[in-house]
């Protein structure tokens, strides 16, 4: 599945489902007087905002390479993910402050059947959305879609905490405040996961051991000679990947012959793995 199509598909479905869930949760929060439910409702509404960011990111990242951006605009996906993380961080902070205020005022919620039904429906819907987003990410490799999936899952987990609080509310008056703190911590963990992956991708990183092994095997099977590839670095620009690495060759090779080997390997990697490779040649004797 194409990255752009995956982003649009996940984003549009997410917006529709989240608006419906927001209305149900907000209504249940008003009826029960639960700040945790009301906060959870606003959390759900922000999922729609993050989905809009995903869609905009897809539109921007789909622009072709130009003179100013020779590697294309694919990193708008990572920028979109960082914006989603920032949004989640603000939500987490608001949850934390509101929960502390609730505890200070000794306020308790009055949960009922409506709150239970709406919360269970939200858990099922949001976890379903998260699984769908992760599925699309695996098919397309779209990191912004994966980030939105984490947003869905954090909402499902926060609703799960609210459900637990509903059943414990009759025994502990402070359960609504505790739920707010726990939800904020879950959100902050999601922020950490999203930022770590997005920042690593922007900075550039070593390819996974599996990818390095696949490249080495590909070169050995094709060239049938003693080449020693090493020092792999990978830069990702959305669906465009730039790989640089070194290959050791015999010191008595002519420049033309060594260049011919490098060109063949670069074309092979592009053809078989859709990765643009740049190879630095060095003799075996080099340290």
| Total helical segments | 8
CATH-defined fold name of the largest domain: Alpha-lytic protease prodomain-like
Structural class: mainly alpha
Strand content: 5-15%
- Shape type: elongated
Please compute the radius of gyration using only Cα atoms: 25 Å
Question: What low-confidence regions span 5 or more consecutive residues with pLDDT below 50?
Answer: none
Q: Helix proportion of residues, in percent?
A: over 70%
Number of β-strand runs: 3
* Major beta sheet summary: 3 strands, mixed
Quickly count the domains: 2
Short précis:
With 287 residues, the chain is mostly helical.
Structural description of this entry:
- With 287 residues, the protein is mainly α.
- It has two domains: 3-203, Alpha-lytic protease prodomain-like (Up-down Bundle), CATH 1.20.1510.10; 209-283, Alpha-Beta Plaits.
- It has eight helices and three strands.
- The chain has a three-stranded mixed β-sheet with strand order 1-2-3.
- Strand 1 (228-237) and strand 2 (240-249) form a beta hairpin.
How is this fold's topology laid out?
Elements: H1 3-32, H2 35-61, H3 76-105, H4 113-140, H5 143-168, H6 175-203, H7 209-223, E1 228-237, E2 240-249, H8 255-273, E3 276-283
Parallel strand pairs: 2-3
Antiparallel strand pairs: 1-2
Helix pairs in contact: 1-2, 1-4, 2-3, 2-5, 3-5, 3-6, 4-5, 5-6, 7-8
